[in-house]
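My current task is to audit a protein record that another person submitted. Thanks in advance; the entry in question is below:
***
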Amino acid sequence: MTGSEHEHDELDDRPPSLGPGRVLIAVYGVFALAASARASVQIIRDVSEAPLAYGLSAFAAVVYIVATLALAHNGARSRVVAWVAVSVELVGVLTVGAASLALPEAFPRDTVWSGFGAGYGYVPLVLPVIGLIYLSRSRPGRVSAG
């Protein structure tokens, strides 16, 4: 990033995204609520039944909340947080997805990311890829140069 791009990024005061960006934020918001509700019920009712799975559900919920808030805000720092959150989400769904298939005994109950998000129509697998593409294509320097 050149100095002028960095300055533009720091001073970027555009409003939050419109169109596809808002749809992405809405989907993240739905997943934040769904994962939070699921993890809360699991932990309150049955934490001893599957502590690893339910702990991972809670972690996924936090990741979705952070990603939603960071994507909704358009500042430079929020974009960095969004990049980190969405990247952690992708690593999480790939890791937990693979582990839940390879070691099913470690996951007696599903998490949001179990089976690569099979319980949610594989949206948890596709969502971070779309999020990273969106972040890449909507970066302020690229938008103003285009």
